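hey can u check if this looks right to u? its 563 residues, i copy pasted from the old doc so theres a chance i mangled smth
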Amino acid sequence: MKNIYKTFALSSVLILLSGCVETIEDNNKSNNDAESASVSAAAAAPVVLLVDDCDGISCGANGNSYKGSGVGVWRYTNKGSGTASLDISLSNVGGKDVTVVFTNERSSSISLPSNGIPLNKIIPDKFLEQKVAETIELGASTFNDIPDHIRHFDKQEMLRQAAENSSQNFAVKPSSQKEWILGNQTIWYVQPGEITEIHTATLRKQTKSGYRTINFWVENGEFTDGKISQTTLDYISEKFTNSVYNNVVSIAGEPWGATGSAYGNSLIDENQPLDIVFVNFDRNSKGGGVVGYFWALNNMRTSSYYKYSNEALVFFADTETLYLTPNGINIMLSVAAHELTHMVNFYQRDVRMSVSDVYDIFLEELTAVMMEDVIGSQIAEGFNDVRDNNYRTWLSGALYNCDFTDWNNCNGQNINSYHVAGSFGAYLLRHYGIGFYKNLLKYPVPRPLGINDRQNSIALLDNVIKTANGEGLGRAVQRWGAGISLLPSDSLPTNLGYPERYEGQFYLSAFDSISFQDTQRLAQKPSVLNGYGHYVTKGGTTADQYRETVAVPSGVSVAVVVK
């Protein structure tokens, strides 16, 4: 199922939950000798930590002692079939920050024992409880209104669900023209929720990139100085064309072109302009909620199945978010990059490669939110919506134990998975680069191992990480979690944290967790560690020696970070 919406939650902290998901074992192998030491539930001999991801003059680990400076990182991964007893004993840590992170390296949930897991001394406070309550309330309107038929790239599923939602008796819209002139008006069929709506918009701006014309439409009544002015639209059109469109196409490919025999003769012509339509989705006088969407059915000609296709290469964006949200213009340009990526993915993957069944909703959305991160600095100096929105919220701790592959679900409740996926995607980009991302967008193997979309996508992501000289998905998730407490600096361990990265014209900014201390909180110990979830405990030490004996279930890694 392909979610092609971009949502933007204005609250900064979400829900503390745990849940159960499908099973795909990560088969990564590690050079770390500690991983080979596992103990069954009945075994008595404890296992120990070994130094991990720590080298050079910035390494703060020396055997089982902290050197006194730099960052010390130790790890143990239980690859056995039963629970292991892990002895943690580190010296020379007095006055230092010690973080212990439990990570599930598998997609299946794992129960944590009632004893043998350290409890957080810093538990969620009233600030977190208040934000969680606000988010639950917001979630009802933010996520439940997304219509299921918009989520699909699969033709038959789109047509089936679209037919169920086609009971309206609107006049049929004339087929979209290939050429428009400024001042033209037309109606657009819009689906921000379950019901199709008609919005009339006027063409207010045109630009061109290569051979493709880009049309900017604004809903009538929204084009005023108090909302979207000509000056604002001129700025948006210039930034979109040069900073968003050109960069997205250079990375991901064209959003439309020759279709061959794909879908028979049901697709729109190959020489389509790109239409961006700004409409007021919900008229609630506030930004947020659903802020943009691309629906692949608009790329198809009208038929008896669904007569409300716009027959256009089009995505829609919310006007109120643009002019009522702080920094709304840059945020909406980031949204445009997100939706354009979905548009490109449909053409490049589904129409040209016929591999839509490989890409589960989580992988489709992961690639789109990663594009926002890649071109954030192209939109505006110092701007990065993934850092300032997704990562900031993820750092709250309430989402550490949510599975990014189980989209918008954590223990059966609705969450904003963009925050989790955005944070993990940003980690992957900074350690594997733009080449890795391009490979992820167009992975050449059409059918990775797996029995459904989600398992296919997990296997695909694991394979692409390995092609970038990584150790696989499970190890990447473990390192992502181990770096939760780290700051970008000269002493940042090679594989951890969010260091800045320059690659050609693209700049990936460092994510500095100290800048988000106002929202960073920890969570109480969960009973279940979700697939690819984390449980984080941390706090300063007063004693010279840190000692702890912890129970480590099979499939769980424990990282200890001292700085």
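The longest strand covers residues 197-209.
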